[in-house]
Write a structure and sequence with these properties.
Structural class: mainly alpha
Distance between the termini: 44 Å
Number of helices: 18
Bound molecules: tryptophan
Shape: globular
Strand content: under 5%
Oligomer: single chain
Number of strands: 0
Order of helices and strands: HHHHHHHHHHHHHHHHHH
Amino acid sequence: MAQSNFGSRLGMILATAGSAVGLGNIWRFPTTTGENGGAAFILVYILFTLFLGLPGMLSEFIVGRNGGGNSIYSYSKAGGNRLWGLTGVMGMICSAMILGFYSVVAGWCLYYLYQALTDNVLGDKAFMASEFNALIGNVWITAGISVLFILLTHAIVVRGVQQGIEKASKAMMPLLFILMLILICAACSLPGAADGITFLFRPDFSKLNATVLFEAIGQSFFSLSLGTACLCTYGAYFPRDTNLVKSSFQIAGIDCGVAIMAGLMIFPAAFAVGIQPDAGPSLIFQTLPNVFRQAFTHSVAYVISIIFFALLSLAALTSTISMHEIGTSMISEERHISRTKAAWVVTIVCSIIGVLSAISMGPRPIGFFGKTLFDNFDGLTSNILLPLGAFVTSLLVGWRMPQEAIINELTSNGRYRLPAKAFALFLFLVRFFVPACILVIILSRFNIL
Ligand code: TRP
């Protein structure tokens, strides 16, 4: 199958890390950590990333590079028949839903970036709350900017793997690190910041319970972009000599590192002005600007707020690109149509999901089970489809795919050494440990356990 590749090692790592690093790290991670007691949660999160996330990621890379095509093609090839390709279809549907609701939050970031530029985000608590509620209530704006964000993603994806995705990631990821470092330095230099750092690094194990464990697994999967064929799609673009094992460690390392960095910029600042870290999802859009206002002089707070919302928008964009690419590559290859046409199909479908999600949070809520559609899409993907995708992938690699093909991928056709013990550990994890853990999560979501 004719395929494009990432042009350089750095480009490949940055593009894949760009997919992983997103609102999941900067928005969801600090929020979940705050709500679940800080350091103990982080420790569990890192353990899950090591023993569940990493083997899961590696499995998707193996399927992807072995296949070398879109995810339907790669899953069918790895499993030996077209039925396995359904995993790719499910991944595409799941990522289209994620792109839909994710673009709503990404749109808020873009809106707040504009507000920060026009010096409109540095009000007190009541002002910030009323501003946020006004934004959510105005479905024309929220729906409009979510579509705008998808169009922005579209503009990058249509340019192709090297000229679009890789180039954009190479420009945006270093900028993202720099912006983040500036914010961490500013936050940690505040008087009282030490309490936030303590919260982040001193574990209190009494806070751990089953819900926290599930939250940690869900967060780890979402953050690594696992279970939606996203890593499989990117894996197909990895050059033949890429060391998959090493790259997985690097990408997961960057992902965890950025999540902890996000904690290092948010908690010290919040503690410095005496704001509780468990403020929930409003933390980023209501609490933080208020923290900036109290902690710094107006002109510094102005610059910091711009940097912060620029950072969020950038992180979101490198992730939405990857969600878009799954569908674009699949539709263009499977239907034999141009990339541009395929990208438009994805853009239109995801825009509809985005608009519906935005409307569902407005004055006339729509949705199922007493929740908004936005929450429905989030819940269905994070709690069920994503773990299911990872479950099927680990079964495929653990039990079905020829071991020779797996070893070929892990060693890049004999280029790299693979100690027998490491391979045995990997097989044990993907055969038993990963599927068992995921099964427990899915069943618990249905309240069966
Ligand atoms: N990992 C991204 C984040 O942390 C989100 C993301 C990108 C994603 N692609 C994905 C999540 C595919 C699930 C599946 O924000």
